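thought: fold this chain, then report.
action: predict
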Amino acid sequence: MKRTAIAFVALTMCLTTMAQNWRQMMSRVEEHSIKSEVLGAERNYTVFLPAGYDIDKEKTYPVLYLLHGMDGTNKDWFDRGHVKDVMDQLTASGEADAMIIVSPDAGGSVREGKWNGYFDMRGWNYEKFFFTEFLPTIEKEYRIKADKQHRAIAGLSMGGGGCTSYAQRHADMFGACYAMSAFLHMGAEGVDAQKVAEGDKTALLFETAHRLSCVDYVKNADEARKQELRTVKWFVDCGDDDFLFDGNIDFYRAMRHAQIPCQLRVRDGGHTWEYWHSALYTALPYFSRVFGK
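observation:
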């Protein structure tokens, strides 16, 4: 009986060790928060850590900042876009390389009066937060290759406009940008001056999108700015039934006219999670090729 008990304890310890080792070999998703002095609030973020991250403590990884859309949060890409499942599948097949993926929270329910947007607006200096607090904290906390070639950004809808604008105006920081169904331009007719004056959060977002139009940024670029934009690898992906389709085509045409290389994919689909989930199968291998150069 005593020998049986010892054998049982030994087996339990062995299985526990095997389970711990197995967990270390698997990819995982974590959710954390950062206290922002700029915003005066806690902001959540979700991070994907690749398989084996905890085994080789010296290994560093490229990073992808993945932005959600309007009315969304940092959880969307993982709960609805299934980033972990796609990433695990693509790394297992060799189509994508290991990378760290980080999704910050720049939104929430508009119906509940939450702020939305990746830009600096009256009462919401999110871009300042992102570049002075969030990104430096992430790249200190995790083993990230913190250079332009190994740092990329992507997003959908509002996040597609956010990632494009970030990569335009911070071209020295990002090696690649992948915009999905992106909110790239807002005409003056879409700005409600009265609501802007009243501080309406959605109106402030639209006014800022008009002021920081990604299309106009290219059209108005001088040669020095065009040269900066040429240092980024650009990719636009939009469905042919998407209500933002025309703006995406306008951006692509502006890039072609300015002789700034930009890939374009137009697939069957609309402004849906089915489209954005499927876009990951192109985006993640694309970033892997960029990182590998």
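thought: worth noting. The chain has one domain: 25-292.
final: tokens above.
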